[in-house]
Amino acid sequence: xxxxxxxxxxxxxxxxxxxxxxxxxxxxxxxxxxxxxxxxxxxxxxxxxxxxxxxxxxxxxxxxxxxxxxxxxxxxxxxxxxxxxxxxxxxxxxxxxxxxxxxxxxxxxxxxxxxxxxxxxxxxxxxxxxxxxxxxxxxx
Length: 140
Description:
Layout lengths: L1 H19 L10 H54 L16 H12 L28
């Protein structure tokens, strides 16, 4: 993991620099144990601070991306709702070879709903799942 490698690298560099300032003879005397304890405490504190900083930065970035993602999803849903607001889905109309879907819908509405629907009132009509679609009202 990237953080582990960074922490390991920092740890080795920090120990090297801390030991640079300590005379070599102190390693062999009892006070050398004190130096080692101080070195470990300082190293651990710095590493913990660096690790916490990196994790906070990562968490902030993730939170920001999640917020952006939620906003984009909401915008897409709003756009899709806007595009669906005038749509009407009709099931159960038999499909015939060479049909003009605008005319099929017009006939269905006149016959079953007893309404006068003009082809110009239809923005677009098509069958789901078929590749061939014929429009009478090409201008819309």
